[in-house]
């Protein structure tokens, strides 16, 4: 058959399908509902992203102000205009290195953050880094109602991963079966029209409509509301591609189910079951399986171990802890002299204990990290089983709220922590006071964004993982269509 | 007559394979979730028991040291995992179960298990409760969507009506058939769950676990009952089976998938919580104000632990300081937690139209894994911490203060450590849980009433052909 | 030209069509008679490549339908018993779509209206939704499609069932005109009268076999009825 004539017929089919869809009231209802959901999800995402950005800038502002205040105070102390207190002395490295002087390490939001809010509440974007062991500041999460954590966010990623498939089902569950049941398929197939041409035309029309809703609308909205999103460069394109390929997967499934030649009702049932399995059950089963295969080390054990170490360290430093605060009655003791500062015995003792615990607990924490890495690697390897899991993580990664970027953040926090400790430990050990000049050398957390190539590579891999089952389903559909009974 | 209708309906459902396949799949999932839940829960409980006793043993074993230091090392409180957590783990994955009772710091839970989670955490955990809440209604819909609509399409309804069968009998008959199908499927799983829970329960709490299980079962029965009548109502009101199932699926997606997230966002906006920074600032400001007032009154200076406070007054100062801060902490943390409970209450009320939220709250409450129970635990932990602090402060005042400048040279030993009791926490009784669940129960009953009224009306007014 | 050579279709142990040999020349109107399940519709479905033959071949204008499905469909027009069009589209829109698919290009509106007039459809109903059409009107739209196609062969499945006598007569005239133009026509029917008066040849099918092959001019109405009933197992 002349390819050109099939191409013309393809165009005719597409045009007619569009007309048929437009005349179908349920199509408008479903599209409208979807549009509303997308709109709400986007607005919610933008709102939350704005709130978070605001909260972060408040923290940064707070840090800066406190530091300025501390510098001011130190200058006054050195000029003799103020007497320092025993627990808030900017000249004392044990204070400045501790909670008094600590700043936050901040993970700034990525340009597309509004699109997938991710588990930002479970994986915090800011840590107050002190010289204490990592264990003490890692747990300090932002305040969120655990019920809300359980529910999850209503963001664009949720709508696209969970609800887009339903839209695709609604438009396509009876792609062929309706024509057969109503008798029009016979009429179509008695014309020189290949079955494949018909199907392609139907799917293409629906895909165009759907992607306009699912991709163009959010992109347009983002461009208007959050122009910074475009600065992400290829990220937005990758996001659009991810949504498109994810939608393609569900279209391929619809095609495969239709190709089996069952009734419209059966098709609908099979598709719903597929959705429940792929989107609801498989990911959480996978979650459980990974948890069983590589269980997390016991946190209770960690707490116990920490306490045991604390006890031992305190016992070792008992003498220091038994010394008294000499500053009482002698306030001048707290002022640095010739760059040296006398730290109260007890405080010194506390510091030494903290350091000891930190060093000893480090291997335990490393074990946790290793286990976590192994679990995440397992997830990455097997999530291809659920396209929903792949798509959700891919969208989170592109929005900058994924697990990989957070792990990268944690590594930088670790480095910053080490630098911070280094800066203050040398001073504490030598009994050197913090001077005004030192202030500009205090380690500062400078966020380094991920390599673009890493982001791109992961995005491509996700696309491949989504595309492969598409091809499988298309192959299956092609095979079954050969035997498709028109009557 | 109702029984005849019910029996025939049940038979048909069995014969067309729906009951077997759909029900079978759900049953397999349920049993898997139960097995896994049981294993998790047993492991967690054993861990907690071991850790709690080791913790107290270590406390007693401490050598001689300044009591303040002992209080700094502190104790841990481990929240006992509720027996019914194997059915509904509730918020436990999102909130820690270990509290460090340390001197001078309001105790907050340490780790959230979800922190150790992978990126799949967002998809939730497969638990029995989740399956019943999310997939249960779907099962009801699949079994019942064409109860009326299908018969109408086949012309059977017309014949039945022509025989003079009243529609209310049909409604009751079909409702009973649906209910019986569900019962047949879920009863074995329920029995297994009950046995597992009672076996897992701590000694002395068996009766309590029974009662809680009863509340749980009642809640789920109400929930599924709502969907039974909703499904039958829609089936009666819809012109074809296809319309019926489309509407029902849309309702299911709205209730099970969309509603929890939308309502969480709504609750967040209606009862906003402060960021950590804002919270800390407010707390610190209040603490400072209180402490300034107190120190000025007692020591004539607002400088805490400064040169104007002699060492022989440090014990007493510690006592004042702690006591004054208690009220501030209670007000701020209490306010925060009250806000969370308001957020949840709002969502429970929405259960009248979105029953999933009400049953979720009820399920967690009955299982003992909701925020109310957690708050009960953290309050008890905090009370224990204050007890430790008070005993320690008292000892300091008696023995360390008189030593004047040698305040910190004072060391105490096992005779003091023994005076502090072990942290012995018992979760609240079933009656307490029942009392707290009044909102969700009311919402579920109201929803059931609405669903029944809808089904009644739809069945009476439906077209026979 | 329509040709069946040893055409056979089996469903498992059941033989729906048993070695059918048929040749319909251009201008022939071949009427296939038989009870329900005799194999009439199966024959048509085989010619349309809706089902694959177990044995034998079906040829349209010398081309095997299984080897060149799209090419052969260009040559033949099919009119089913029940014509179901797209109810949300108008008669004209349905005509335009199907004729477009048939020819590979869209016909202009005037031509389409002309076609509708040719089949006897009031132009006023052309733009009304097909959902409101009667069975006869829908069939007329479909005949218009067939005419637009200008196919050399026609396959009809019980075309006059459910039509009132005037419509049935109109239809017969249509067939006669087409046959005069050299179209080869195969039609299945229950209507003995229609078969003898419109058809040029008559075949009787029983349980998948062609048991009689008659010239319609050579027999009378009564003879046809007798032969038919004899094969159907009724009293002569």
Main pleated-sheet profile of chain A: 2 strands, antiparallel
Mean pLDDT of chain A: 88
SSE topology string of chain C: EEEHEEHEHHHEHEHEEH
The main sheet of chain C comes to:
6 strands, mixed
How does the overall form of chain A come out from the CA principal axes?
A: elongated
Provide the spatial order of strands within the biggest beta sheet of chain A.
1-2
- What's the gyration radius of chain A in Å? 30 Å
Quantity of strands of chain C, as a count: 10
Textual characterization of the structure:
- The complex is a heterotrimer of chains A (487), B (465) and C (236).
- Chain A is mostly helical and 487 residues long.
- Chain A has 17 helices and 2 strands.
- Chain A has a two-stranded antiparallel ribbon with strand order 1-2.
- The mean pLDDT of chain A is 88.
- Chain B has a two-stranded antiparallel ribbon with strand order 1-2.
- Chain B is built from 16 helices and 2 strands.
- The model of chain B has no long low-confidence stretch (mean pLDDT 87).
- Chain B has one domain.
- Chain B is elongated.
- The longest helix of chain B is centred in the N-terminal third of the chain and has 44 residues, at 18-61.
- Chain B is 71% helix and 2% strand.
- In chain B, helix 2 (18-61) packs parallel to helix 7 (167-200) and helix 9 runs antiparallel to helix 11 (314-349).
- Chain B is mostly helical and 465 residues long.
- Chain B has helices at residues 2-15, 18-61, 67-73, 128-144, 149-154, 156-162, 167-200, 206-237, 241-270, 276-299, 314-349, 355-367, 371-400, 414-417, 430-436, 438-461, and strands at 75-78, 98-101.
- Chain C is an alpha/beta fold and 236 residues long.
- In chain C, strand 9 and strand 10 (209-215) form a beta hairpin.
- The model of chain C has no long low-confidence stretch (mean pLDDT 90).
- Classes of the chains: A mainly alpha (487), B mainly alpha (465), C alpha/beta (236).
- Chains in contact: A-B, A-C.
- At the A-B interface, helix 2, helix 5, helix 6, helix 11 and helix 12 of A face helix 2, helix 3, helix 4, helix 9 and helix 10 of B.
